[in-house]
Amino acid sequence: MRQAEVYRKGILAGVLTEDGGEYLFCYDKTYLAREDAQPVSLTLPLQTDAFVSPVLFPFFDGLIPEGWLLDVALRNTDISILDRMSLLLLCCKDCIGSISIVLKPNAGGEV
């Protein structure tokens, strides 16, 4: 199981989990209680229930770079292009926009 913290504008918004070939995204309860809480994506509206998917959610997959930047990441690591969670964790800590993805401390799994 691997987990990543999802930040929106530097504020913890939720946790993305990869476990046994299934992905879950759950908003943080503290984030949901904020008056200024906004969804990380229109496809992931604010809710207390976890979102579940057999593949990495398209919103998060879309954060992974393409083209030459992806080639650089792949060339300098031993990560497979099919390992989308590892690529997300490797490339999206400081990506363009308001969302950042950080390996959750003590969550296991290396990038």
What does this structure look like?
With 111 residues, this protein is of the alpha+beta class. The chain has one domain (2-103). 23% of the residues lie in helices and 27% in strands. The chain has 4 helices and 5 strands. The protein has helices spanning 29-33, 58-61, 67-75, 84-91, and strands spanning 2-8, 11-19, 22-27, 51-53, 99-103. It has a 5-stranded antiparallel sheet with strand order 4-3-2-1-5. The protein is globular.
List the helices and strands and how they pair.
Blueprint (H helix, E strand, L loop, with lengths): L1 E7 L2 E9 L2 E6 L1 H5 L17 E3 L4 H4 L5 H9 L8 H8 L7 E5 L8
Antiparallel strand pairs: 1-2, 1-5, 2-3, 3-4
Query: Could you give the count of β-strands?
Result: 5
Q: For the record, give the distance between the C-alpha atoms at the N and C termini, rounded to a whole number.
A: 13 Å
Q: Output the structural class.
A: alpha+beta
Order of helices and strands: EEEHEHHHE
Biggest β-sheet, characterized? 5 strands, antiparallel
Q: Report the sheet-strand fraction.
A: 25-35%
Please, what is the average pLDDT? 91
How many domains in all? Answer: 1
The unreliable regions are none
Order of strands in the sheet with most strands: 4-3-2-1-5
Rg computed from alpha carbons, rounded to a whole number of angstroms: 14 Å
Helix content: 10-25%
Morphology: globular
Please work out how many helical segments DSSP would assign: 4
